[in-house]
Amino acid sequence: MPTSILPNLLGFSMGGMAIMLAFAGSKVFTYITEDGKKHSYFIKIVASFYHFIFVQTAAILMGILCQAYPSIVLSFIGFWSLTYALLVAPATAAQLFNTARIANAAASILDIDTPNKPPRSD
């Protein structure tokens, strides 16, 4: 089961990481990097994605190992690694949602800072 579920989830993770790294070319990037602070929001979100990708990769490898060498102990460890990999997904999705909220707030600040731009009609 991990070898059928987790590769798709790993693709989601890589896509989310690509979205985060795409912010590097935008003005919003200056807000999430917090002027280069060591523990900025950007570093936290990248670390979160790295953890998510690492856990999924470990669970996939454990699933392959369980298929090659079936045993109760490996199956138990494999089940919990799959469960943990699936439970980390909502936390990472929440990080993406928070990033979207920050980008949205930064966009409204950038609209205020941009002269000669017509006001938005929210």
How is the topology of this model organized?
Layout: H1 2-22, H2 28-32, H3 41-68, H4 72-113
Helix pairs in contact: 1-3, 1-4, 3-4
Low-pLDDT runs of 5+ residues are none
One letter per element, helices H and strands E, the order comes to HHHH
How would you sum up the major sheet?
none
Strand content: under 5%
Number of helices: 4
Helix content: over 70%
Quick one: how many beta strands? Answer: 0
Task: Report the C-alpha radius of gyration, rounded.
Answer: 19 Å
Shape: elongated
| Ends apart, CA distance between termini | 47 Å
The whole-number mean of residue pLDDT values reads 80
Backbone structural class: mainly alpha
- What is the subunit arrangement here? single chain
What would your notes on this structure say?
It is a single chain. By secondary structure, this protein is an all-alpha fold. Helices cover 79% and strands 0% of the residues. It is built from four helices and no strands. Helix 1 packs antiparallel against helix 3 (41-68) and helix 1 runs parallel beside helix 4 (72-113). The longest helix is centred in the last third of the chain and has 42 residues, at 72-113. The model has no long low-confidence stretch (mean pLDDT 80).
